[in-house]
Amino acid sequence: MSRQIIIAENAGFCFGVKRAVDMTSEYNTDNESKVYTLGPLIHNRDLVEKLEQEGIRRIDIGEIPNLKEGDTVVIRSHGVVPDIIDQISRTGAKVLNATCPYVTSIQMKARKYHGEGYQIIIVGDKNHPEVIGINGWCNNTALVTRDGSDLENLPDKVCVLSQTTEKHINFEKTVQAVTGQARDVLAFNTICSATRERQESADRVSKIVDLMVVIGGRHSSNTKKLYEICRENCSNTLLVENAGELPEWVISDPKLKRVGVTAGASTPDWIMKEVMDKLRGEGASGKRDQEERKSD
Ligand code: SF4
Questions:
Q1: Which of 130, 166, 241, 292 is catalytic?
Q2: Is the CB of 103 under 6 A from ligand 1?
Q3: Distance from the CA of 202 to the center of ligand 1, in angstroms?
Q4: Bridging pattern class, strands 258-263 and 211-215
């Protein structure tokens, strides 16, 4: 079977996730202390299991009081509310803060402009840990909106921030809605370029393939958004966490001549490789869409 596999130009680990994983592994190798992550380090079960095998265990907020002096707790790339860092420090445990610098920058804006009297508005998912964390830096006073359509009776001064993985259209709609209501509007497009690049690459590839495979955790917000984008272009889009989840028909169907692949920001390279290997089958070729476009 001859099959062409097109890998999205930007796919897989982003800067912040790679940094958090590297920081944690290096710290664990170089230090004697027990290392815990607060929540799963990234939205990827296979990687979390691998870390467990290396002795790095996940704990939840309720377990913070059980920490001992000398233990270390990793704060993942999503960041947390400042109170959590205080709680950990009070137990005598160390904090290894792997919050992505881009998220830290949003937290600092929330704190600064809240301090200057602005109503903070966050475009995003109110239940997402990153949004909950950012809200903590303005004393949990932020209004969290999906696209601004639910915002009314705003004060004069508002500051709009965005979850890093949000869609641009939702940010733009919110700024529009707010501009009609408040007089002093500060708007920071804090959507991460890694997210945008992954979304644009996925959009491009999913328009030209018979099947699109999105690799990533089902709880990963950026993976879910990639899936939605691909699904709009290609009804034959699958979301899998690893190679084991690829159904047999995907591997054997000869009608699937062009297969596109993308992966969320928390998908390790080795999982992408396993999926690619399984998809390739006999006589297939794989290339980044950049190479594909060059040869067009
Ligand atoms: S998606 Fe962007 S903001 Fe989020 S962890 Fe990755 S680099 Fe940081």
A1: 130
A2: yes
A3: 17
A4: parallel
Q: Which CATH class is domain 4-13+194-295?
A: alpha beta
Nearest-atom index, ligand 1, CA of 195: 1
The predicted-structure confidence for 128-180, as pLDDT tens digits, reads as follows 999 999 999 999 999 999 999 999 999 999 999 999 988 889 999 999 999 98
Instruction: Identify the residue whose C-alpha is closest to ligand 1 atom 5.
Output: 16
Segment 32-52, tens digit of pLDDT:
889 999 999 988 888 999 999
CA distance 174 to 278: 42
Domain edges within the chain: 4-13+194-295, 16-99, 102-193
16 CB neighbour count, 10 Å cutoff: 25
Angle at 164 between CA 62 and CA 118, to 5 degrees: 85
State which of 104, 134, 195 you would mutate to test the pocket of ligand 1, scoring each by most atoms of that ligand within 8 A of its C-beta: 195
Quote the ligand 1 centre to 82 CA distance (angstroms): 19
Q: What is the pLDDT of residue 161?
A: 98
CATH architecture type of domain 16-99: 3-Layer(aba) Sandwich (3.40)
Contact 239, 265 (CB under 8 A): no
278, 243 contact by CB (below 8 A): yes
What is the 280 CA–ligand 1 centroid distance (Å)? 30
> Facing residues of 225 across strands?
none
Is 274 one of the catalytic residues?
Answer: no
| Region label for 156, one of left (φ > 0), alpha (ψ between -120 and 50) or beta (otherwise) | alpha
282 — pLDDT class (breaks 50, 70, 90): very low
Determine if ligand 1 sits within 6 Å of the CB of residue 226. no
Cβ of 13 below 6 Å from ligand 1: no
> Tokens 């997210």 — which residue?
195
